[in-house]
Amino acid sequence: MKKRLIAEVLRGGQKDELVTIRGWARTKRELKEFAFLEANDGSSMANLQVVLHTDLPDYASVLKQLNTGASVEVSGVLVDSPAKGQRIELKASAVKVYGEADPESYPLQKKRHSFEFLRTIGHLRSRTNTLGAVFRVRNACAQAIHKFFYERGFIWVHTPIITASDCEGAGEMFAVTSLDLKNLPRTESQEIDYSQDFFGKKAFLTVSGQLEAEVMAMAFSNVYTFGPTFRAENSNTSRHLAEFWMVEPEMAFCDLKGDMDLAEAFLKYVFGFVLETCPEDIEFFNKRIDNTVLATADNIINNQFERVTYTEAIALLEKAKKKFEYPVEWGLDLQSEHERYLAEELFKKPAIVTDYPVGIKAFYMRLNDDAKTVAAMDVVAPKIGEIIGGSQREERLDILERRIQEAGLNLEDYWWYLDLRRYGTVEHAGFGLGFERLVQFMTGMANIRDVIPFPRTPLSIDF
Ligand code: 4AD
Ligand code: MG
C-alpha cells in the first residue's frame, strides 16, 4: 500500500484507493460497532478521519492504546465520508500503534490551551492546530523568499554567524569565547587577554549579515542572505527576540528608490505566494486568531505603500489627535506606537518612512545633501510597526570614515569594509526584513514567541 501524507489523501485521494498513513492521534471517539480516530501528520490543518470497525484484528487492545498523542500507522481503503465537511475517510484494515501517550500525563488533551501555557511545552506545542498552521505558513514564507530572489537573479550568499564586527554599532552583541571563564587570561594592565581566545580577538554572534552581504554585492551585483541573527537587547516585548531570522538583500548600482521598490514588490510577492499555497491555514488565522488577516493580505497585495519622509511623518504625528506615551520631536526615533499610528490609523496600509536624522541611524547609511538626514527607509506595518529596515549605503570613503569615527567605532576594525570604497565603489542599497515579524504580520499572531519554533528571549532558553 502506498504511504501517503494526509494532505495528499485529503486533496487527491480517490474512493477505493488503498493507502497507508502515519501520524499522531488527535482524538478518538468510540461508538458501539466502530470507533473514529482523527489522525494528523502535520502536512495539513485538517485531520484524516479513520474508521475502525470492531472486526479489526486486536480491536480492543488497539483502541486502548490509541489515546490522544499516540503515534500510529493505519492502512486501509478510502471510502466516501458520510460526515459533514469531509469528502473522504479511511476505513482501517490494519492499525499499528508505535508509541502510546498516557492520557494521565500527556498535556495536550482536547481543549483550548493558552499560548502562554503552550510555551511551557515547546517540545509538544507544534502538534496543536494553531502552531501547526504557524509553522506551515512560516515554511511557505521562506520558500517564497527564495523563489522571489531566484526569479530576479539574486545570488543567495551565506554570511557568517560568528563575527568580529558590530554591524549596527549598537553594542547589543553576544560574546563568543572559548576562554575559561573561571580563569581568564589577563594582560599586564589586567584587561582580559583576548589574544589567547579562540580567534585571537574578541568575537560575537552577528546582529546582521549586511556588511558581508555588501562584500558579496560588490562582486555579484544582487545578493541576499537569510539566516539567524542575534541581539542581546533586554527587550521583553511581543515583537523582539534575542535570536531571530533576517532576510537581507543587497544591490549594487541601486539607490534608495530602487531599495523601496524592491521591499514593496517583495512583501507583495510573499503574501501572494502564501495565500496561494496555504489557503486553509490563512482561513484558520482569519477565523480564529485575527479577523483582519485576509483583509490585510488583500491590502498589501493590491495597494501601493504610502511613502513619506521622516520629517513629514513627524509633522503628521504632531498633528495627530492622539496621546502618545513617547515624545514626538524631530531628531528622536519613532517608537512603535508612532509607527503603528501612521500605518494602522492614518494610512491604513504599510508606509515607507525615509530620510531619518543622521543621529539616530547606523554609521553605514548614506548621508543626504542636507547633511542632517541619511538615505534610510523603514517599512512600517499595521499592528507590527517596523518590519523592514534598510538604506542606501555610504559609498564615499571619506564620509564613511568620518561616520565610523563619530559612531565611536574603530576604523581598523572596518578596514576591509572601507576597502570596498577604495576599489570599485558604487552606489548600493539593501534592507533587512525581520522574518518573524513577517510571519506575525501574515498570521495575526500577537506574540513573536509563537511564530518561531524555539524562541530565545531574556531568561528563556528551554527547548
Ligand atoms: O533595523 P535593523 O536593525 O536593520 C539591520 O540590521 C540592517 N543591517 C538591515 C540591512 O539593511 N541589511 O533590523 C532589520 C529588521 C527590523 O526591521 C525588524 O523587522 C527585525 O529586523 N528585528 C527584529 N526582529 C525580532 N527581534 C528583534 N530583536 C529584532 N530586531 C530587529
Ligand atoms: Mg531598524
Report on the structure:
The protein is of the alpha+beta class and 463 residues long. Helix content is 31%, strand content 24%. It is built from 13 helices and 17 strands. The protein has helices at 6-12, 59-65, 115-119, 129-151, 210-220, 256-277, 279-289, 293-302, 310-319, 336-346, 397-406, 415-422, 435-443; strands at residues 2-3, 18-30, 34-40, 48-53, 71-80, 88-99, 155-156, 162-163, 175-176, 203-205, 222-230, 243-252, 306-309, 351-357, 373-381, 385-392, 428-434. The chain has an eight-stranded mixed sheet. The chain is elongated. The mean pLDDT is 96. 4-amino-1,4-dioxobutan-2-aminium adenosine-5'-monophosphate binds next to strand 12, strand 16, strand 17 and helix 13.
What value does the average pLDDT take?
Answer: 96
Cα-to-Cα separation, first versus last residue? 37 Å
The strand line-up of the biggest sheet is 7-11-12-17-16-15-14-13
The small-molecule ligands in this entry are:
4-amino-1,4-dioxobutan-2-aminium adenosine-5'-monophosphate, magnesium ion
Tertiary shape: elongated
**What is the count of helical runs?**
13
Overall SS class: alpha+beta
Largest sheet: 8 strands, mixed
What is the helix fraction of residues, given as a range?
A: 25-40%
Low-confidence stretches: none
**Rg result:** 26 Å
Number of strands: 17
